[in-house]
Amino acid sequence: MAPDTQQRRRRMTAEDRHEQILDITHAIVDAEGFHAATLNRIAAEAGVSRTVLYQQFGDLPGLFVALVDREAARAGTWFAEAVAQSPPPTDRDGAFTHAFAEVLRAVDAHPATWRLFLFPPQGAPPELHARLVQAQSFVREYFMSVLLSINPDLPDPEYTAHILNAAGDELLRLRLTEPDAATHERLLAHVRRLTPALLRQAV
Prior knowledge:
By secondary structure, this protein is an all-alpha fold. The protein is 77% helix and 0% strand. Keywords: DNA-binding.
């Protein structure tokens, strides 16, 4: 190992080391699944001993939970920012389309984070599925709030929110799996066509 590399590693703060280990773990998980992310491999790629991993995360499940929590917080922040930048709910088509466009930009900028939840890797810990349930509930609550702002008497907004949530997730999966075909223009055009059909009762 080169002296300058050794110096950089010695200078790394505990917080920086924490993030470095999570980044390395995420890269392995994203490419090969959780089963491939062993303590020995993570330690080797981070250039640290297993003792450092234990000090930082307790054990391998603790490391996985820390990764899931970090990525869930990031995705939640990006979604909240997308919603905050959207037009008022009274702009029926614009609110959903703009929010989806902002989420698409976040997916393009951070695909590994979104793959973690849209395509849970093999061997994912139960905490990932728990965070996913929480996130979906948050998204559906957003959809319901917009739906009820459009029409407080809308029949069964809960199920309409479920449909919107499922449709949005599938479009994001298409963006991740076939980006050349699932362009922003094509996906947003579909959202513009889909929204009035689902919200016809809200007119």
